């Protein structure tokens, strides 16, 4: 501390050791002031380390303090730069990790969709490659449940028949003339309105094969397959 204008003998070890440049400068100043040759850097360091403010000429004291403060400021600036660099590197690492995860998630989603589409197309292809179409069956005046079920088996992939049958069991119990008095739904698959089945054939009211064709197309288009329709039916009691 300064007491009046008197300077106490405050040690300058911290100043001298803080910077080799500052130590050299202080040693040179002390030597010149005493009328001696400048000391070597090593000797100057030792002298400065043991010196006090009072041992240094008044004109050199400000230089010592300025050099030390400059070194401290440089050290603090270096530490701040190092911390900022470390923070920037960590932020970059996190951003890169998030980007990589986003790309992976997108790739996984695209892969899953592609696989689902492939399964759906395979099912549809199997259905389309069935050996019989509605027009392949002889038209009769009436059909038994067994005859209707036999037609259905021949018009779709074997692994889809049970799902189709489950829906028809619930909707009409395989009665191709079943009519819902309240809604007007009609036929094996209870199309609403029943006239929609005309897209599969003009005889939609009397030919179960026509109704099966329409119902199979509906299930494939809307749910991917009869089994897809059955899964939806189980969850909602309609399809």
- N-to-C SSE series? EEHHHHHHHH
The largest sheet, given as strand count, sense and whether it forms a barrel, is: 2 strands, antiparallel
Taken as a percent bin, the fraction of beta residues is: under 5%
Can you list the strand order of the major beta sheet? 1-2
Discrete helix count = 8
Instruction: Report the average pLDDT across residues.
Output: 79
Provide the helix percentage.
55-70%
Radius of gyration: 47 Å
Estimate the global geometry from the Cα principal axes. Answer: rod-shaped
Task: Outline the low-pLDDT stretches.
Answer: 1-35
Protein name: Transglycosylase SLT domain-containing protein
InterPro entries: Lysozyme-like_dom_sf, Transglycosylase_SLT_dom_1
Keywords: Membrane, Transmembrane, Transmembrane helix
